[in-house]
Write a structure and sequence with these properties.
By secondary structure, the chain is of the alpha+beta class. It folds into three domains: 91 residues, no CATH class; 89 residues, Immunoglobulin-like (Sandwich), CATH 2.60.40; 180 residues, no CATH class. It contains six helices and 23 strands. Helix 2 runs parallel beside helix 4. It is elongated.
Amino acid sequence: MSNDGLLQKAIKQQAADDEDEPIIIIAENILEEEIPISKIITTLLVGALLPIIALMWFGIYLDFIPLNLLYPIVIFGSIILVWRHLRIGLPASMGGVGMQTMRAILVGGAYLVMILIPLILGNILVGEMSLGEVEFSDDGSTMEIKIRQNSGSSDPVDALVSIGDWSSTESLAINKEDGFGDYGSIVLTVSDFYQFNALPSNPYTLSITVDSLVMSTTLDSAKLSRTITDVQSSTAAAFSTDSDDCGTKDSCVAGVVLTAWAGLDTLGDNPPSPMSLAKYTINAIMYYEDTNRKLAIYYPVIEVENTIAIWDSEGGQYGGGSAIVGDFGSEISLEGSVSDVMLNAKYIPIADWEENDYGCYSFEVKVSQHVPWATGPEPSITHTSYYLYAEEGAGGDNPNNTDESWTRVTSCDD
């Protein structure tokens, strides 16, 4: 029984040794496998250099994560991918089966060079200071000026900033970094230097002097045109053929659509150009021009700021109470309560007018500019258009039938 037991143990030990041997052989084969130097170089170019270059070019747009955190993450992830792709391995002390020392030295040296060379060159070669981007805040109230200088000093220096007749001495330090390199910034309040519209022919020139270096650029004229210089007004009649509205008339005026424009004056009778950063108030009133001027429609006061127009809709009697104006156009529709498919707008029904007799009407739009963009001799601009509301014969087989008209005229004095 004892001999059988010893023999059986020997057989099991031999089987175990046979099972372990292929694993050791496979591990040794992996470590001894030769990889051409061209493959190592290609792997480093694609797996190491390419991600770093991409990060330098596009990292600035990834504003949801700081670059000083993103760089280490990308480099560490790149090292892991390259290390595994080249099958460098890990030492036995770290749970591995050994590592390729020469490959590890090549990869480690390549990453060390990519990391250290920019740092060394940055400390030795200080770039020349230059004027970078000029960015306005969303509401246009401030303007940030970026001054770029790779490896520039973070110690503040005086910078003389001038725009037209305005000037100021600001503190500048190269203490920030983005995907384009090191920079410092100066933030200005636009109302401090704003005088009048840059468009069409009064551009703002920014000049910055640091020591003996002078840097200059022309600022965005569209961003610096905020003073309303042209206002227009118009109405259009909504017609009905419903007997409930018109009685025996073939057609009648069911109401009017009111429209206003406010923006930058253009040539001829063209609508004014939009101003996305303007701030102003619109007062729109339609009068019945009888022997005494009488109120027909008094539209709620409209406040416009940075393309958002807001007014009291009075429970839907005057549209939705908000609109976008000055973004893609200078037109604002002063909505009523009834939709008209033909006019593609909401009109104010004639039943809601204070006066609705036949005769001449004037539609007056007055725009008052708000500070700080209220400049020039006129605090407000007014435009008035005139319309004749009349009853006339329809003709045809039944000359007793009539209809109504709404016609634009030059004035109510005729």
